[in-house]
Amino acid sequence: MTNYEPGNRGPLDRHPRNPILTPEQMPFRCYSVFNAGATVFRDKVLLLLRVERCDRKTYFHVATSADGVAFEVCPEPIRYPLSRAEARFGPAHRFDMRITRLDGVYYAYHAAWMRHGCCIGMATTEDFVDFTPLPHLSEPSNRNAVLFPEKIGGLYVRLDRPDKAIWCSWSPDLEFWGRSMPLDMPPLAWGGLKVGAGAIPIRTEHGWLEIYHAVCNTCSSNNYHLGVMLLDLEDPSKVLAAPTEFILAAERDYECMGQTPNVVFTSGAVEMPDGTLNVYYGGADTRMCLATTTVERLVRYCLDAKARLSQDERTKP
Ligand code: BMA
Prior knowledge:
There is one protein chain. A hairpin with a 2-residue loop joins strand 2 and strand 3 (44-52). This protein starts with 12 loop residues before the first strand and ends with a helix. It has three helices and 22 strands. The longest helix has 20 residues, at 295-314. Helices cover 9% and strands 43% of the residues. The strands form five sheets. Strands 14, 15, 16, 17, 18 and 19 form a six-stranded antiparallel β-sheet that branches. It has one domain (19-314): Glycosyl hydrolase domain, family 43 (Tachylectin-2, Chain A, 5 Propeller), CATH 2.115.10. The chain is mainly beta. The protein binds beta-D-mannopyranose (BMA).
């Protein structure tokens, strides 16, 4: 018997004030606000919101909060000039920021759709007002890049999604990436279409805790789910535990209705001072939502699933 899930609903609790940010609440007219990167900046939770205005163009706006639930949105978008690649080939459609703080520097990874396909772009920032792009984008087709919050063995490490699965790559300088390896995840009935990294990995004594998304096809839509897994601390391409049950699926109206129905998609989680882990996620590509848990609860969920799997293996006829 496990004790992580009151009501047997899983290890995440939707926040009673969901959705926490909607297009109607923005201090400007817009169509959707979703898939925010999340971090802590100057003692507040900071979300880097993906905002689509009514011209269907994407802007990034900062929202800050002391309690992680009620946010104040900056009416001005961030300033983020073109990378060298975009100056040559035209501005990319940038979306889905993931923010990592590493050695006191904030790095923001995002998808960058250009005429060659979907690439990964990256910027650094000191104040979340001005962003400085890295000159180059990745090769296509890649997205959902997530930089680990510390170097491993002296190298930068990132998860990303070339094609349809999560890979792990290493770099001495954030420019040259290699040693790439797909994660050895189990097949997921809810991840048949694609699986991508979500939140920035969190170091625990049992491994890196990673909250990710996985997509399956139904008769009417591509359904997005959130899952959780533990990765090896020294080599994160090694999956230590990956429960084959999702931790969140689109079930509520605010997750099922909107510009893309049946989507829950996370780009960031923040540990609050009281130990609550706030998992921020987009609902139906239209609004921002929040689910809460703790790191310990998710780790236990992973380890329990692994123990059950080993038990099943042992008792196989
Ligand atoms: C993915 C990304 C996400 C989006 C999701 C569902 O491919 O584009 O930004 O939330 O699709 O539409």
